[in-house]
Amino acid sequence: MFLLGYDIGSSSVKASLVNAETGKCVSSAFFPKTEANIIAVNPGWAEQDPESWWENLKLSTQAIMTESGVSAAEIKAIGISYQMHGLVCVDKNQHVLRPAIIWCDSRAVPYGQKAFETIGEERCLSHLLNSPGNFTASKLAWIKENEPAIYEQIDKIMLPGDYIAMKLSGEICTTVSGLSEGMFWDFKNNRVADFLMKYYGFDHSLIADIKPTFSEQGRVNATAAQELGRYLYEYRLPILLIIDNRICCPLIHLSRRHAVQTKQILFQNIRFAHGMEFPGKADTDSSFDFMLYNEFHDSSSSGYRRAAARQHPMLSCGSPPVI
């Protein structure tokens, strides 16, 4: 049994095939072979064409399938990690409306700082756990003010990983962990941050359907399979994880310290996707929540987030992961 992983980076897109039993990577490839293009029309701007991520994903997939000799029947699930905080906007036909504003673009700093000051430090830190800063919500505010014709055409906003999942499945969804990194999630009320949406003038319809991070978030469809060379479609592979690289690094650390629990959670999701017995979302989510809580929700990390948000919006670290 093998697992297929994608990493949507700003330098390249990597695909890796992992033996689910041993954890050994049997094949890995990335494209482009030189650093991916970043569009910088003005100082401090950084954009990429989301379609280039998809094209490089196809090349990476074909490379690892050819090299490994693994059959599609042996691949049981897909996971996606991605560059955090990027903003992808699509219309009702799932067409990209403009280049993605990626994580290292700083044009939205004034928007987030003004929101932090207007809404109030205490409310932002107690509900969002951070300043709106230069995160995804503030990037969308920049589009709303500076590109109103494009903003009016937006049907859904997505993160880079959500976009790739859409290209694979034809479905648009997101997660609480994804919304939290964009400053769209109210941790105190456990819902989309209504007060921030109201402040920026965003309609709630822009937010995609929310699914648990560790759950099936779509299956590879015929259109994507045809583009991928029909390596995957026959088995309608489930997409079980879409998570940003902010969380992936600590998950590697956690998987070493909590190897048994991590493996159990992974295989519970794979069994569920294939119609086998599944203990329930609450069991798996709460198990991982507990591990993440012990690692991240201590006074020192909380104090660091608050101090960073107060000192400078560009130094604000992302919200803590919520699975």
Layout of helices and strands, plus pairs?
Layout: E1 2-8, E2 13-19, E3 25-31, E4 47-48, H1 50-68, E5 75-82, E6 88-90, E7 100-101, H2 109-119, H3 121-127, H4 136-146, H5 148-153, E8 156-158, H6 160-169, E9 173-174, H7 176-181, E10 185-186, E11 191-192, H8 194-200, E12 209-210, H9 222-227, E13 239-244, H10 245-257, H11 259-273, H12 281-296, H13 299-311
Parallel strand pairs: 1-5, 5-13, 9-12
Antiparallel strand pairs: 1-2, 2-3, 4-7, 6-8, 10-11
Helix pairs in contact: 10-11, 11-12
Question: Would you give an account of this structure?
Answer:
By secondary structure, the chain is an alpha/beta fold. It is built from 13 helices and 13 strands. The strands form five sheets. Strands 3-2-1-5-13 form a five-stranded mixed β-sheet, sandwiched between helices. Strands 4-7 form a two-stranded antiparallel ribbon. It has a two-stranded antiparallel sheet with strand order 6-8. Helix 11 (259-273) runs antiparallel to helix 12 (281-296). It starts with a strand and ends in a 12-residue tail after the last helix.
In short:
The chain is of the alpha/beta class and 323 residues long. It has helices at 50-68, 109-119, 121-127, 136-146, 148-153, 160-169, 176-181, 194-200, 222-227, 245-257, 259-273, 281-296, 299-311, and strands at residues 2-8, 13-19, 25-31, 47-48, 75-82, 88-90, 100-101, 156-158, 173-174, 185-186, 191-192, 209-210, 239-244.
